[in-house]
Amino acid sequence: MSATSWAWLVLLFPLVGSIAIALGFRTLPSKAAGLIGTAAIGAAFICGIAALVCLLGEDPEARHHASSLWDYASVAGLNIRLGIYVDPLSVFMVLVVTGVSTLIHLYSYGYMQSDQGYHRFFSYLNFFVFSMLLLVLAGNFVLLIVGWAFVGFASYALISFWYRRKTATKAGMKAFVINVVGDIGLVLAAFLIFRELGTFEYEDVFAKAPQVFHTNEWTVVAICLLLLVGAFAKSAQLPFHTWLPDAMEGPTPVSSLIHAATMVTAGVYLIARTHTLFVLAPTAADIAAFVGLATLLVAGTIALVMTDLKRAIAYSTMSQIGYMIMGVSIGAYSAGMFHLMTHAFFKALLFMAAGSFISAMANKQNIDEMSGFGKAMRFTSITFVCGALALAAFPGTSGFFSKDEILAYAHARGGMYDIFQILGYFGALLTAIYTFRLVFRVLPGKPCKEAQELIDTGHLAHETPRNPASGEEEDTDVGFPGAEHHIAEQSPGMKIAMGVLAFLALFAGLVQVPGLDETITHFLDPVFADSPLAEIVPSVGASWAGLAIGAAISVVGIGIAYWLYILRPEMPAALIRRFGWLHTFLVNKWYFDELIDVLVVRPALAIGRFANRFFERFVVDGLVTGTEETVRGASSVAHRLQNGFVRSYALILIAGFAGLALYFLIVQS
Amino acid sequence: MNIEWYIVLSALLFAIGAVGILVRRSPMVILLCLELMLNAGNLALVAFSREVGNQQGQVFALVVMVIAACEVVVGLGLIVAIFRRKLPLNVDDLRELRG
Predict the structure, then answer these.
(1) Pairing with A108, which of A69, A463, A574, B66 sits 20 to 30 Å away (CA)?
(2) Burial code of A225-237, b = ≥16 C-beta within 10 A, e = fewer?
């Protein structure tokens, strides 16, 4: 079987899984839904590996195939096929998405066990994976947009999964609206591409673009900026990032799957996929890189002060995606994709561990209330530390190699791009501090009430569950993961998933050691061969120098966190008192929500109110009422004629004929 | 004989029929008046046919007679039905079609 056939199967399994679970929700026992869901994604992963094997058996230059099943739309010179494009980049994404998703399904199998919406959850989850795979495998911009929009919908459905929770439904709407703004950008970009190049197929677009566009011509810059709107909205970059922290209202596996490992990386994939256009529009690429840099710093600072465990990790996700966006924009394509992969591993793991802690805390997410879990939950704690080490880029872990590779490339490109390296290292310092802030606040110390109960009796805390955001009592029917909680220590599925991810978070970096193997660079090279930026390669010496700096920064950051939260535990409070204004500013997330409220929401509301008061009331109502009045007036005349007397009808008839006859007589004579 | 006589007779019959329809209330009489008007038409058709010298007018007259027969069947049927249901045989009282 060829690579494309395997790729079609990759798409087929999650779709079938989603539909099967959705249709069988009455008849399937709940465990079966979880098993079907997990098996479908697992099968997709295996097909992905088969596609990889097929590709590896070919010449590196010949490793790209387009395949289409049928015409999706064929009208007026427009021929859109339901086609996929299989090359190392899409196969790489397929493997990351399906691989991590399989583990997250396995985790959800245990974690969501007592949720009333178990079937719904797995059906959504499979649908999400299908949409994401459609997005990465699409062979033209139209199908990309279809996948893009499906992913947005799946995200909405899963964030609002506990639909009795008001905060959750609001967060879902927010995510959906911001994602649609991005969709509009992407659609407009596709329109422009079609106008200029007359095609939507990737192969044709990327072949024609260098011949049609001059470097930095306004059209290609406009296309790239519109693509960036889509990428930023999906990848939660400034100023479209506000939905991601709110999306933590969804169940924890959803945070882990969508908002860390897969969906939010779609923007990175998009930039990597359309790198040909970005090479032609260096201005747009630089804007993207600067936005990525700004996001990684802003999100890093906010993560320093967040007290909500999941939200702190969510901000760290934004920050790490900032690195990836920066990487693929300045030309460090394979480094960016490599960071995408390692980030998927350790961030999914961190969320899983966080979910396990939150379960043990009876759904409380505030780290101020957590302490001493190191003793109570050994396995979760160890995996949490593995993930944290990788996120903090501790020497030897996966995050260490991937992050520093991006920064080394920035330095190798030189000139203005050195800024990215310097500020990138500053961001890495922030990362190490905020990551280990979480570790040092949750794991050591005197066990809190819930942890003590777990140590003493092995039971989980069971309080009346309350919404961590609003304090409302939870509806345990559909607004909460059920009356029972599940932690990794007591659920083998969760344990396996976290164990595998912990292993990957620690050691996946070894496939890409500078000067040694660089597997991923070699694999992805043919995709990016047409970009002149891909020829810039940091020397092995420079890479190792960068790694050394990165190692030092990581250790220093962890040290600062240790000093602040273990050695001098009174210090953070003193700092907050001393820099109260800064703390308030960060706790309020740089006032981005308020800024968007003033700049976008309020003007839109004002326009809406104006339209309601004047346009709707006078123009629309006037038109409708006027028409109605005219018809009513005219019909009242006709109404009087219909009196029901046969002879009056006859009179009208005869008089009419007589009149006609007279008329013709007069005309004739 | 001159054609004017026939036409005048036809017009008179037609006018009598029309006035009858307008002023009488019994459905039976209205039906009769209708027949009168149809036959006035027939008379005119046949007269013109003879005047012009072809047969088309006469054929039309035959068709009109057939239709008149059908109409009588339906009309009388209606009248009998109204009578059977003990409704007043007065067209002014049958005003359900008022708009």
Answers:
(1) A463
(2) bbbbbbbbbbbbb
Q: Do A646 and B18 touch (CB under 8 A)?
A: no
Cα angle value A41/A44/A49 (rounded, 5°): 130
Provide, as residue numbers in chain B, all residues whose Cβ is less than 8 Å from the Cβ of A639.
Answer: 99
Q: Are A296 and A319 in contact (CB under 8 A)?
A: yes
How many structural domains compose chain B?
Answer: 1
**Residue contact A644–B96, C-beta within 8 A:** yes
| Torsion angle (degrees, nearest 10) of CA A431, A432, A438, A444 | 180
The model's confidence at residue A479, banded by pLDDT at 50, 70 and 90, is low
pLDDT tens digits for A587-620? 787 788 888 888 888 888 999 998 888 888 888 8
In a domain, B73, yes or no: yes
- For the stretch A348-377, pLDDT in tens is 899 888 888 888 877 777 887 877 777 778
Cα–Cα distance, A399 to A505 (Å, whole number): 8
Residue contact A644–B18, C-beta within 8 A: no
- When CB atoms are compared, the residue of B92, B94, B99 closest to A642 is B99
The Cα–Cα gap between A185 and B24 comes to 78
Of B51, B74, B54, give the one whose Cα is nearest residue B2. Answer: B51
Site from A636, A637, A647 to mutate, B interface, most B CB atoms within 10 angstroms: A647
Structural domain boundaries enclosing B58: 3-86
> Using CB atoms, which residue from A641, A642, A650 is nearest to B21?
A650
pLDDT at A469: 67
Preferred mutation among B7, B10, B19, B22 to probe A, highest tally of A CBs within 10 A: B22
In a domain, B97, yes or no: no
Q: CA neighbours within 13 Å on the CB side: how many for A625?
A: 7
The CATH number of whichever domain residue B32 belongs to comes to: 1.10.287.3510
Asked if residue B42 belongs to a domain, the reply is yes
